[in-house]
Design brief:
This protein is an alpha/beta fold and about 550 residues long. Among the domains are: about 190 residues, Rossmann fold; about 70 residues, Luciferase, domain 3, CATH 2.30.38.10; about 100 residues, GMP Synthetase, Chain A, domain 3 (2-Layer Sandwich), CATH 3.30.300. The protein contains 17 helices and 26 strands. The strands form five sheets. A nine-stranded mixed β-sheet has the order 2-1-11-10-12-13-14-15-16, with helices on both faces. It has a seven-stranded mixed β-sheet with strand order 7-6-5-3-4-8-9. Strands 17, 18, 19, 20 and 21 form a five-stranded antiparallel β-sheet that branches. Helix 1 packs antiparallel against helix 2, helix 2 packs across helix 3 and helix 7 crosses helix 9. The protein is globular. The N and C termini lie far apart (about 75 Å). It binds adenosine monophosphate. The site of adenosine monophosphate has 19 residues, from strand 14, strand 20 and strand 21.
Length: about 550
């Protein structure tokens, strides 16, 4: 149509070309897997990204080939984010915490011929290489002098990169071209691939920088602890590059001490990650009597943020928790619970209560809850049903996979059960398969967990429904105590008694030394249900 806007295709390469011109001196800081902290500017990064694009060409990577990475959050992984997608290939970030059989499956399923790998994962690749049928090149993301000895024919990223020109013309293509690939590991069957496009990635980044979302600007010093192999670190590398934020990448150092050191040195003001990493950081701060002086906001997602964690960040570190919800199929941003005039008008306690909800949908995401009959349910904060979503950065199918069962009438069924209140705040009740069905009524395992973890002697806990002769299922509470702390079953139940309704009370409390987690840090409740299935039936 005459008189319309320019027909510019959205592209991931445009992030880095923009940063090079506009934010050339803004910095990226990275903890190298081989040791030491590295720092450079977006202008330096842009040059190396072009060298990496030339390297990919030399390795024979063609348009829409999948290129795998098995790597931590580092500047080199960052360079591949732009070089691979920008040159028209597809960046396949592999989660090293998957079982080896799953890694073999997804590398073969994606038909990866080139793998970029951090030194920590070489032993893994040595073990499984004979089953990676298509893999031709293994490029190690390390300095030349730190190249490991191996039985495999490894090549060195830094050495190869140094030989490449930093002149490269970014190819132009349709914005609906695939850019990145991330597999989500369900609890059953093979992992399923979600393929993101240039278009979905760019508009997701544009949405996420807004103040009502992550609020990323050139004044932000952002530290994504969420891995770059888990839904593209929630899109932060793109959002930071678009805004010229200082990007701080923690490498392999995920423990409390290492994260604290980076936050403190770089004066990070925005952190993102799942609750388990914050448990470790908060415990470190408590033990070492440290305060997170620079941190203004902590985005917590992936699992529910308990009120005790929200309170501790606020009261001990003066950091506001933005509770967020999303999933691999959603790029991942779905809802965020940011500060706004309504929240500011509440008392501190009411505010904490509201913050335990997962927030409101970001512009671009529509959500609804539906009942067992498939009909939409009211947004009254009480009715709960299956949470369904739609929007331009939500997957419409899985990569090379027949399963369409999650899609219906243009909506994607998240597998979560939720409520939505009158103000649009969504609250996750549970994963549909983790809801405890007691005497025909439902109990939210997440709610009980989040209260129990508030006990001062509790490091981590899990609540699962296990078979019960009279009630079908009853809740069982599993507790890991904090080192040096003690609590009895009776004290635990007493702590819960005035905080939850009577019939939600766990019938039994067991103390354990560890709890199983999925590769993305969620409690593996299926395993717990299996292990403890006889607790109430007495078999
Ligand atoms: P993933 O695809 O691995 O990112 O997992 C997505 C799932 O994690 C969602 O469907 C939820 O079940 C869960 N999840 C993510 N964020 C939250 C949150 N803030 N609270 C509760 N569950 C969450």
């Amino acid at each position: 149509m005459h008189g319309l806007m320019m027909d510019m295709q959205l592209s991931i390469a445009s992030f880095i070309t923009h940063a090079e011109k506009v934010h050339s001196r803004a910095r990226i800081v990275s903890r190298k897997p081989e040791g030491g902290i590295f720092s450079y500017t977006y202008a330096d990064a842009a040059k190396r990204v072009r060298q990496a694009a030339n390297l990919l060409k030399k390795l024979g990577v063609k348009h829409q080939d999948r290129v795998a990475t098995l790597a931590w959050n580092t500047h080199r992984h960052y360079e591949l984010y732009f070089a691979v997608s920008g040159s028209g290939a597809i960046l396949h970030t592999v989660n090293p915490r998957l079982f080896p059989e799953q890694i073999i499956y997804i590398l073969n399923h994606a038909e990866d011929e080139v793998l970029f790998v951090d030194i920590q994962f070489i032993p893994l690749i040595e073990k499984i290489k004979s089953q990676l049928l298509l893999l031709k090149h293994i490029v190690v993301l390390v300095d030349k002098e730190k190249m490991p000895q191996s039985t495999l024919p490894l090549v060195c990223y830094e050495e190869l990169l140094a030989a490449e020109s930093d002149r490269y013309e970014w190819p132009q293509f349709d914005e609906n071209t695939a850019a990145t690939l991330c597999y989500t590991s369900g609890t059953t069957g093979h992992p399923k691939g979600v393929l993101y496009s240039h278009r979905s990635t760019v508009i997701h980044a544009m949405g996420s920088v807004s103040l009502d979302a992550l609020g990323i600007s050139s004044a932000t010093v952002v530290l994504p602890v969420v891995p770059m192999f888990h839904v593209n670190a929630w899109g932060v590398p793109y959002a930071a590059t678009a805004s010229g934020a200082t990007l701080v990448l923690p490498g392999a150092g995920m423990d409390g001490a290492s994260i604290f050191e980076l936050i403190d040195n770089e004066k990070a003001n925005l952190l993102l990650g799942v609750p388990t990493v914050w448990l470790a950081l908060l415990q470190y701060c408590e033990r070492e009597k440290k305060t997170l002086h620079s941190v203004q906001e902590v985005v917590i997602g992936g699992s529910a943020a308990p009120m005790s964690m929200i309170r501790e960040f606020q009261e001990k570190h003066n950091a506001f928790v933005i509770h967020a919800w999303g999933m691999t199929e959603m790029s991942p941003m779905g809802t965020l619970n940011t500060m706004n005039p309504h929240m500011a008008s509440l008392s501190q306690e009411e505010r904490y209560k509201l913050q335990t909800k997962q927030g409101r949908p970001i512009y671009g995401v529509e959500l609804r809850i539906v009942g067992a009959d498939g009909l939409p349910m009211p947004h009254d904060g009480k009715s709960f049903g299956r949470l369904q979503v739609r929007g331009p950065w939500i997957a419409k199918s899985y990569y090379k996979h027949e399963d369409r069962s999650a899609w219906e009438d243009g909506w994607f069924d998240t597998g979560d059960v939720a409520t939505v209140d009158e103000n649009g705040y969504m609250n996750i009740v549970d994963r549909a398969k983790d809801v405890i069905k007691s005497g025909g009524e439902w109990i939210s395992s997440i709610d009980v967990e989040n209260i129990a973890v508030g006990h001062p002697a509790v490091a981590e806990c899990a609540v699962v429904g296990v078979p019960h002769p009279k009630w079908d299922e009853r809740p069982l509470l599993l507790v890991i105590k904090k080192p040096g702390q003690d609590v009895t079953k009776e004290q635990m139940l007493e702590f819960l008694a005035d905080k939850i309704v009577k019939w939600w009370m766990p019938d039994e409390v067991l103390f354990v030394t560890e709890l199983p987690h999925t590769p993305t840090g969620k409690l593996l409740k299926r395993d717990l249900r299996e292990t403890f299935k006889d607790v109430y039936t007495g078999h």
